[in-house]
Amino acid sequence: MRANTAEKWLEERIRKYGPISKLSLFGKPTVFVYGQAANKFVYTSDSSTIGHQQNQSFRMILGDRNLFDLSAEDHKRVRGALVSFLKPESLKHYVGKMDGEVKQHLEMHWQGKQQVQVLPLMKTLTFNIICSLLFGVERGARREKFKACFKEMIVGTWSAPLNLPFTRYNRSLRASATAQNMIKDLIREKRVELEQKGASHQDLITCLLSIRKEDNEEALTEIEIVHNVMLVMIAGHDTSSVLMTFIMRLLANEPAVYAAVLQEQEEIAKTKPSGEFLTWEDLTKMKYTWRVAMETLRMVPPGFGGFRKALKDIEYGGYLIPKGWQIFWAMPMTHMDSNIFPEPSKFDPSRFENKASVPPYSFVPFGGGPRICPGYEFTRIETLVTIHYLVTQFTWKLCADNSFSRDPMPVPTQGLPVKLVPRKLC
């Protein structure tokens, strides 16, 4: 992963053994599956047949009641609770708040700078958006403490689960315990607010606390809220920051695409009085910009792959997958398959002009089927608002080569340093 040769390694396995083969990963017997049929098999299989299977470090740091480790009715119940906040009908009311966070971030960290490192700044931005919109934690000492815990926690999610002093895993476990206690404090505060002021869906935690059985939904336990808030922290932070970083990298290398994005965004900017926030209607006009984001996700998906667990003996592809074995698949494999996407190394947003032209279960950065990522719409809004202000306020030039590694998310060389020029000076 760190040498960014994992795809080549898997391609070699496919050439040798075909689209299904066995190996050992994280000390467990594992089946690697590849192709559209494999993706469909993973994403649509009944929850009594295949369950989520995260590595031990991820599960211990986030907690075992997070959505990725639940199956059957528990998965459906918790997912439904998260979707109640993350669905478009709810999120359209938060575009203005996200707009304000992006503007404030650019003013603090980008304006007046000649050179910046994009990835660390994008991580700062996405973390601040998460704190504001999902937790209701505004700028200040509490948010800074959250940030310090979060940084320490996230580095151990893919580490070897050796709980010894001074190991990465041990430090992450301790940071996780601190973060979970902070979330419990938030839950207690918001529960008191709910009792005093009534139901309100102003942030994710409040929304989850508001779910009552009279709404025909079963309330989440406190530990379920804590573990799933932890999950949303990591999922929303890493994926969005990586996506926006690589959009900037690709736009710097593709002048024609940059010009088309700029034209689309300038037309929207012209309709906005000075200082006015973007709206949901503005985002619906950013069709080309989102196609650029989709093509970026095709070429550099933030997640490399995932794990499931066979809950019983499964017949697949003429083979028996024994109960208890891990099932592993990798997202980039179908994304870069020339039989699915002609000239896969070419950056071409027009691939996504027509949904029908993309074969089912071949483009899976957000998963697919009943387990598609509930944060898809949140990521779309966050990305479009950020790219709008970046391209209308700046032009940039890369200061390092185009290489990147995975740890496990894609990390561009030196965090993608760029030379910035304000557009009014261009």
From TrEMBL:
Reported cofactor(s): heme
Biological classification of the source: Eukaryota, Viridiplantae, Streptophyta, Embryophyta, Tracheophyta
Localization: Membrane
Stated name of the protein: Cytochrome P450
SUPFAM superfamilies for the chain: Cytochrome P450 (SSF48264)
Keyword Kinase: no
Key words of the record: Heme, Iron, Membrane, Metal-binding, Monooxygenase, Oxidoreductase, Transmembrane, Transmembrane helix
Residues involved in heme binding: 373
InterPro entries referenced in this protein's UniProt entry, alphabetically: Cyt_P450, Cyt_P450_CS, Cyt_P450_E_grp-I, Cyt_P450_sf
Family recorded in the similarity comment: Belongs to the cytochrome P450 family.
GO function term, MF aspect, one: heme binding
Any GO CC annotation of this UniProt entry: membrane
Superkingdom assignment: Eukaryota
One GO BP: sterol metabolic process
Keyword Oxidoreductase: yes
PROSITE patterns: CYTOCHROME_P450 (PS00086)
Bilayer topology annotation: Single-pass membrane protein
